[in-house]
Amino acid sequence: MSDKLIWQRVETAAMFCTQITGKHLTGGGLEFVIYPNGRISGTADGQKFSGSWVWRDGFFCRKSELDGEDLGLDCEVIEISDGRMRYTRDKGMGDTAIVEIGKIVPG
User: Superkingdom of the source (predicted)?
Assistant: First the structure.
């Protein structure tokens, strides 16, 4: 990945839904979909990953489980650049990860 990517913060729920929801997201052992209906499902390092999400005050807020273990609530800064999504936990103060934005998932 290029260090020269220019990241654009996703500021609204409408922008998030247009750019991210319903698309196959992969990278760093993750493979998941954030659905427009508020559901999240996929895998993380081969374990079942699921949860729900809302857009709140400019942040993607998700409550999720990994293989049945409650991961709690986290609100994240979402940014996009050149077919990638970067998310930073703890309202932009935590760890950052990048996933590829793939094709729309049927259904």
Answer: Bacteria
